[in-house]
Structure prediction request, 136 residues.
Amino acid sequence: MNYVLVSACLVGEEVRWHGRKVPYSAFVRKFQKANPDVQLIPVCPEMLGGLPTPRPPVKVRHGRVLTTCEDKAHRDEVTGDDVTDAFVAGAQATLTIAKENRCTRAILLKTSPSCARNGITGKLLLENGIEVISVL
Prediction:
């Protein structure tokens, strides 16, 4: 059996920062249909790092992850708690799961400060030879 990591939110789990369910990803559905021998392993690095759901939205600033205002119009201006350590811990836990399951690929949420290819988890997986497919 081949294993592929997938952002838990892409498979309909209620783990996004706002705590609401989002639709199952059409890309993931097509991927599963085209690869019936693959078992998906849902992960949420932010929750693996100890953050709750729901949680405040975040922005990455100068390599740090800071909570921001829920009001979209002020999200770039308002910063709060530094949650970088939780993001790093979640990335490490995700990498451990990937290694334990011999994953060579991950399908991650493109817009996440954690899961995106340039996010904390995305970068760590890439640095460790795991292909990251970014989808919405």
